[in-house]
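FORM 12-B: Structure-to-Sequence Request
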């Protein structure tokens, strides 16, 4: 559970697969998102729904699980 602190705009972008929230501030770009457990990821607008994966709290896009963003490949080699 992440509480939003006053004066700190957190990213809170959700991981498209795990649903983990990014705990970095909004200004972390272009560094990757990172959750409180240290997992990092990059994402981009979902190519299927272009960010509109959730309508009236209902997930309409199976590609991104409703978060509107799709994972980008991390190149770790
Ligand atoms: Zn983030
Ligand atoms: Zn989508």
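FORM 12-B RESPONSE
SEQUENCE OUT:
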């Amino acid at each position: 559970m992440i509480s939003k602190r006053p004066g700190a705009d957190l990213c809170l972008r959700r991981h498209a697969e795990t649903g983990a929230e990014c705990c970095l501030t909004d200004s972390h770009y272009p560094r990757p998102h990172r959750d409180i457990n240290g997992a990092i990821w990059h994402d981009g607008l979902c190519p299927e729904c272009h960010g509109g994966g959730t309508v009236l709290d209902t997930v309409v896009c199976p590609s991104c699980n409703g978060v509107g963003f799709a994972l980008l490949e991390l190149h770790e080699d």
